[in-house]
Amino acid sequence: MFALVLTVCYLGGGCDDMVVDAFDTVQECHIAMRQQGLHQAGCYPIEEFIDGDWIPAHSHADF
Q: Which InterPro entries does the record match to this protein (predicted)?
């Protein structure tokens, strides 16, 4: 399973990761990301997200 994760960074500093939804396949996750217009989001295996084994974004880039 895959989680659609949106990282929100605040003007005052700090960031939070928000799980938007969960999907059975990465393809379903990518389709939902495009449909919702979430260009700054990502699809991650739920096990890695829950266990904290993934590394969230630590820098900001303008696209």
A: DUF1482
